Each structure stands twice: as C-alpha cells, then as structure tokens.
Amino acid sequence: MEFGSGDPQALMREFLHLVGGCAVIDGGLATELEANGADLNDPLWSAKCLISSPHLIRKVHLAYLEAGAHVIITSSYQATIQGFKSRGFSPEESEDLLRRSVEIAREARDIFYNDCLRGYGGHSDIKKRTVLVAASIGSYGAYLADGSEYSGHYGKDVTIENLKDFHRRRLEVLAEGGADLIAFETIPNKLEAQAYAELLEEANIRIPAWFSFNSKDGVNVVSGDSLTECVSIADSCKRVVAVGINCTPPRFIHGLILSIKKVTKKPILIYPNSGERYDADKKEWVVSTGVTNEDFVSYVQVWHEAGACLIGGCCRTTPKTIRGISLALQKEHAIPGESVP
C-alpha cells in the first residue's frame, strides 16, 4: 500500500485492517547484528554496519520478516549527517548512507515477497503479506552517544530551533528515500517531541510518522516530562499516525498504554526492550534485570487488550520473540493470510 498520498490516518487504519487489527513490529536490530558477528562498539552503533557490513543488516531484516513482522525499522537510528561527517564522510556521502538504510530494508522486503511467491508456486495473484518500512530517527542524545537519550537532559543551551536544525536534513532525506513512514524513536523529552512535530509541518513531509517515547518509571518519559503532555503533542500533529512507547521494560507497558489512551485516539504502538539494563561503564547488559522470551510473549494479549495495536520488541529482543508475538496474535485473532514458519 502507498502511504505517500491521501489521508495518513485513514491509511494507517487500512493497514491495520489488512493485518487483522494488530501489526507486528520487528525486534532489536543492534543486538541482533551483534549476535551475527558485528562489532558495534562505536559512536555510530548499528549505523556502523551501513559502512562495514550492510549484508548483515539485510540478513537481520529478513529474519524478522520470516518471523512474522509487518513493520521493519531501518538501521538509521544512530545514523546522522553530523555523525558520518565526524568519520570523514562528505555531506553527500552521508546522505547516501541514510538512503542506503532504506534501500537495504526495501531489498529485504523484496526478497521476502519473492520467497513468498515461490512458496506458492509462483502464483502472482497470491496476496502478499503487507510489510511497511519505517525509517528510524533517533534522538539528539543518540547522536551524542553519551547516554543522554536515556535521560533527556541536553543542557539549557539546547533549544527547539537547535534540535530542528540538527534533524531537518536527515528527516528530509529519509522521507524522500522510499520509506513508508518515519519512526521517531526513543523520544526522551517534550522539547524534542515539539521539535519533531514542528519539523513535520514546516518541511512539508509527505509521508506519515509515529512518535515513540521511552520511560524508566512507568509514569513519565525518561527526562521526567509528563508522558501525557508528550503524547498530546503527537496527537495534535496531523502527520503522526500512531504514538507509543519503545525501549522500556515490559513491566511498565500496561500502565503506560492506559495513560496514552487518556490523551489520544490514534493507534498505540509498543515495542519494549527485554527488561535488561545496559551498564554504560562496563559496556554490557545486566541480564538479571530482564524477562525470559516466554514471559515477554505472555504479555502480548494483555497489551493488545489494553489498546496496543502495533506490537514488537526493542533492545535484546530477537526473531524468536517476534515469532512468539506473531503466533500469539494469530491465535487470538486469526490474522488472515498469515503463515509463520
């Protein structure tokens, strides 16, 4: 389906109808790249693979599609023109790398579609599973690579105009690069949410977007700003077609969904992390704080019943997690046309 024209809210409703009422988002990209041998100990994080190993990105996208994902998120979360420039790339080369993140996701989708057709004996009239490519935009804090994306504390000198100037060209390049929507992820504060909303209007972006915040207390976003105030900003933006939570421990998700429902009637998306905590000093995950894959999947029905209609995983979730989510939703609602290997 084409998201580039028409009423974006109606198009999102059509998409959700096509997938049976609840879409499956993919899982953690960076940690799955590491599981496939990538070394991401770098300020560019997963975006490093756009330079060194794009084939691994394609492989991970394809693994999530095969697990049942309806939405795959590009490897551009920590890919910025400013970050690539610091590595010696020209502005033109940096923009090409951003476009490449979308191209790789689209290539994975094409491979998946072709594999589906072959599985049906090559009959072109077989309905393909609807898959959207979401171009990821991480926060200013992600570019800083100092952990401030998980605090939202950028300092008093950072203004809305600063943030708009930082994000503007990346947003334009990704929006023009063939993605179906823009995923503003791990938004840590109200300031950045407002900057995104204003940019979507000022830059005349033609494709829709979602806003996804993160929380560490189950009440507010990580900066301490009110979640409901942040969601209100997303709700008032015409090009935002869904709003929710990512990279947040599963134990907080149910309460956060209920809080979001009080503010917006837009579709709610959630893709929590595994509950594990990253120790930035030791550069390792604290596994004891997480939940098992089975426990994560056991929450799916509760989250869906509470109001979430796009569900996936973030850091430390895997294709196995996404397969579990897909199967749980199929069992609950008999998603049409689905067959997860």
From TrEMBL:
A GO term, aspect molecular function: zinc ion binding
Domain of life from the UniProt record: Eukaryota
Gene3D superfamilies in UniProt: Homocysteine-binding-like domain
Protein residues bound to Zn(2+): 247, 314-315
The protein's Enzyme Commission number: 2.1.1.10
Catalytic activity, reaction form: S-methyl-L-methionine + L-homocysteine = 2 L-methionine + H(+)
Keywords: Amino-acid biosynthesis, Metal-binding, Methionine biosynthesis, Methyltransferase, Transferase, Zinc
SUPFAM superfamilies hit by this protein: Homocysteine S-methyltransferase
Protein's UniProt name: homocysteine S-methyltransferase
Lineage, uppermost ranks: Eukaryota, Viridiplantae, Streptophyta, Embryophyta, Tracheophyta
